[in-house]
Design goal:
It is found in: Mitochondrion. With 340 residues, the protein is α/β, with parallel strands linked by helices. It has 13 helices and twelve strands. It has a single domain, classed as Vaccinia Virus protein VP39 (Rossmann fold). Helix 6 links the parallel strand 5 and strand 6. The N and C termini lie far apart (64 Å).
Length: 340
């Protein structure tokens, strides 16, 4: 059995080694050496070694599978988040293990709910930072493929839950995810739309208590394995335009928030231009927005995740490292203080 694992790793290594896109790697090399300093080389090591990537399982509270948790424990899985967090609802159960590899995925079967969602554990941090409570009106502005929406519904039952996805194909993927995880009566609370997220603030001003902006971004992990170098080059050239889109989505989110409401912004890139720079632009241009301290959550999960040091209290950046190969994931939290 061990022999076959070694062979599989060799095969995987061989297959994946070839696929690293040099154009992207060179671009990242330049930018991230400047932005992350010494931290970049260990991050690069993980991002370019898919055989050491890890996967977590978010259990679905709407579909109880007897024996799943004990079978996970037998395979070395443990709760991914410590109980001492500022916000961790009892129904929110996520498991991970230090060993790389992934648990088998469940196929989509119409009329049957899935028991778990496979994900990068860091992608749950924006949801835990958002702290959704029962009965709140919630907007997930860029919701596909739907993992964070599913996670929000593990935490609480919103009064109204609006999941938006502008892209047609991704929107279908979102609908399928919701169908696979959420039972009928609850599905009626969820509105799925295909609006331009930049316009929702004007269409529904001051309507939501909580907004998640999991923005379109440079997906560092997948870009490194772009199969088409031409497409990769095009992406790198268009990368500068992303921060302007992200800023417009955030401005729309602020408009959509009620005074006193809060928003969480997240990306899966290490890029400062799409992370801190965008948040600083919002803080400098919207007088009615304040940063919210999330350092308590960051401290609470510091055993499970590795963070870039020197960040502000309202933000964090998860850096993948061996044995904790989660991320990249940037998270920032803001609060709307008044209408203007």
């Amino acid at each position: 059995h061990f022999q076959s694992l070694v062979q599989l790793e060799k095969k995987t290594k061989g297959k994946l080694q070839k696929q690293i896109c040099q154009v992207v790697l060179e671009h990242f090399e330049k930018q991230y050496t400047a932005e992350l300093g010494d931290a970049w080389s260990s991050v690069r090591d993980v991002l370019t070694s898919p055989w050491c990537w890890q996967h977590a399982l978010l259990l679905n509270r709407f579909s109880w599978s007897p024996g799943l948790e004990s079978s996970l424990a037998e395979q070395g899985y443990q709760p991914a988040f410590p109980a001492a967090l500022p916000y961790l609802p009892a129904a929110f159960r996520c498991y991970s293990r230090p060993a790389p590899g992934r648990f088998p995925a469940q196929k989509h079967q119409p009329g049957r709910l899935k028991d778990y969602y496979l994900l990068n554990a860091a992608s749950l941090l924006p949801v835990l930072a958002l702290e959704v409570e029962h009965g709140e009106d919630v907007l997930d502005l860029c919701a596909a493929p739907g993992g964070k929406a599913v996670a929000i519904l593990q935490c609480a039952c919103p009064g109204h839950f609006h999941c938006n996805e502008y892209d047609d194909l991704r929107s279908r993927w979102l609908e399928q995810t919701i169908e696979s995880f959420i039972p009928d009566p609850l599905i009626n609370l969820i509105r799925v739309s295909k609006l331009d997220g930049r316009q929702i603030g004007d269409l529904q001003p001051e309507f939501y208590d909580k907004v998640l902006v999991d923005a379109p971004c440079s997906n560092d992990r997948s870009w490194l394995f772009s199969a088409d170098p031409q497409q990769a080059l095009l992406r790198l050239m268009q990368r500068k335009e992303l921060s302007s889109l992200q800023f417009q989505l955030l401005r729309s989110a602020v408009k959509a928030l009620r005074p006193g409401g809060s928003l969480v912004y997240s990306t899966c890139t290490l890029s400062k231009a799409e992370n801190s720079d965008v948040i600083n632009l919002v803080l400098n241009s919207c007088r009615n927005v304040m940063p919210v301290d999330i350092s308590g959550m960051a401290r609470g999960v510091s055993q499970e995740f590795s963070f870039l040091s020197g960040m502000q209290q309202h933000e964090l950046l998860v850096l993948p490292e061996r044995g904790r190969a989660w991320g990249p994931m940037y998270v920032a939290k803001l609060k709307k203080v008044s209408s203007t």
